[in-house]
Amino acid sequence: MTPLYSSWRKSSYSNPGSECIEVGRGSGGTIGVRDTKQGDTGPILEFTWSEWTTFIKAIRTIKP
Predict the structure, then answer these.
(1) Closest-CA residue to 22 (of 8, 42, 3)
(2) Is the pTM of this model over 0.85?
(3) Where do the segments described as Disordered lie (predicted)?
């Protein structure tokens, strides 16, 4: 079952008006990522806190 999410916020790297993602906190301590355009009707990619920190660390090592 998908936990309820709150405190959705847009990524500071999102392109206004088109390619935006949001990150929210789950009721069970999970982190959710969703497409802003789909809002509450779209799928949510769920991470545990450990998975989220590993994901963020990996992204930060990517050179543009």
Answers:
(1) 8
(2) no
(3) 1-37
